[in-house]
Structure formats: structure tokens, C-alpha cells
Amino acid sequence: MGDHRGVANTRGNQTVRDLVLSMAVIGVVVAVIYIFIPHSEGDPVKSVSYTVELGQARRDAPFAVAAPVGLDKQWRATSVMYDASDTKAVAWHLGFVDPENEYAAVEQSNANAVAFIKEKTYSAVRSGSRTVDGFTWARYKGDKYDALVREEGGVTTMVTGTASFDQLAKLAAALQERGGQ
């Protein structure tokens, strides 16, 4: 009777060696694919155009709709919304990423000012005022968003977000109002 342990042991070693070689070949193929296939490392923030919505809002809103003019190209519009589904509480929103990659938005409505400010600033608290281009804006400080707010003729206009008060003031200074009925 011969010793079969040597044959089985050799066969087991060949199987393990083949498995290791196969894994190495697969690893090389994956590495080549990873190196030579382009990766998307672009900016995850997508800019949007707001021309159509702004035109509609300025034609239809019962107040003069505010939008910035002359902002540096580093300010990128990222969201826009005009909601006139409730004619008693029309709302305009225009969101941006500022040059410091912080969020800033123009919010405007003829809704109840106290509720509107609370909602859009996530319950920020009034903390003084700031003059921007000759207009006095109420300053709000919050845990999530800060804001500069102007109330005039039943319309609340605010710039709010995670951006610094200086950046919010730049956005407020760039606002121009047109339209309204």
C-alpha cells in the first residue's frame, strides 16, 4: 500500500497556489482599470439658471421681486422657487453658494412676517440691525442660519443662510426689485 498523503498534499498546495495567482491577476486588472478610467472629481454643487422663474415671479407676484445684480461670478445659484399656489402668501426663493462655499439665500414673501422669518431662519433671534446701502436691515442670529431682514409694505425680504454677515450684506446690497402689481 502506497502513501497517498503526499499526492493529496501536493494537489492541495497547487489549488491554494492557483487561487493566489488568480487573485493577483484580478488585482492587477482592477488596478489598471482604476488608474486609466477617469474619475469624476468635479464640484458636487450644481449651478442652476433662474431666469425663467425670475421672469414669471416678476410678472405675477403682488410685490416687487428681488434678485441680485452684479454679484461676482463666484456666487453660484443652486436653487430657485416661485410659489404662488396661495395668492395670500406668495413666496420667492433663490439660493446660492457664496465664494467661501457657504449657503446664502434670498427669501421673499407677503406671508405673515413673524412666521416666515421663523421658518426660513430656523428660529433665529433678532440681534440688532445693520445698514446696507442706506437701508436698515434687522439682524437675526441663529444656531443654523443667520439673516438680514427688511419688512416693507407687507412684504418681508431677507438674505439668510450659513454665510457670514458680511457675505449676507453683499448679497443684500446686490438686490434689485422689479415687478409687482
Structure description:
There is one protein chain. It is elongated, with a radius of gyration of 29 Å. The longest helix is centred in the N-terminal third of the chain and has 32 residues, at 5-36. The protein is an alpha+beta fold and 181 residues long. The strands form 2 sheets. The chain has a 7-stranded antiparallel beta sheet with strand order 2-3-4-8-7-6-5, with helices on both faces. Strands 1-9 form a two-stranded antiparallel sheet. 34% of the residues lie in helices and 33% in strands. The protein is built from 4 helices and 9 strands, in the order ααββββαββββαβ. It folds into 2 domains: 1-41; 51-178, Phosphorylase Kinase, domain 1 (2-Layer Sandwich). The chain has helices at 5-36, 51-60, 113-121, 165-174, and strands at 65-68, 76-83, 91-97, 103-109, 125-132, 135-141, 146-152, 155-161, 175-178. A hairpin with a 5-residue loop joins strand 3 and strand 4.
Query: What is the CATH topology classification name of the largest domain?
Result: Phosphorylase Kinase, domain 1
Specify the overall morphology: elongated
Task: From the alpha carbons, calculate the radius of gyration and give it in angstroms.
Answer: 29 Å
Tell me the domain tally.
2
**Helical coverage, percent range:** 25-40%
Summarize the helix and strand pattern as letters: HHEEEEHEEEEHE
Count the strands? 9
What is the terminal separation in angstroms? 107 Å
Proportion of beta-strand residues: 25-35%
Please give the CATH architecture of the largest domain: 2-Layer Sandwich
Output the structural class.
alpha+beta
How would you name the CATH homologous superfamily of the largest domain?
Answer: MucB/RseB, C-terminal domain
**Unreliable stretches, pLDDT < 50, 5 or more residues?**
none
- Spatial order of strands in the largest sheet: 2-3-4-8-7-6-5
Average of the residue pLDDT scores: 89
Q: Largest sheet, described in full?
A: 7 strands, antiparallel
CATH class of the largest domain: Alpha Beta
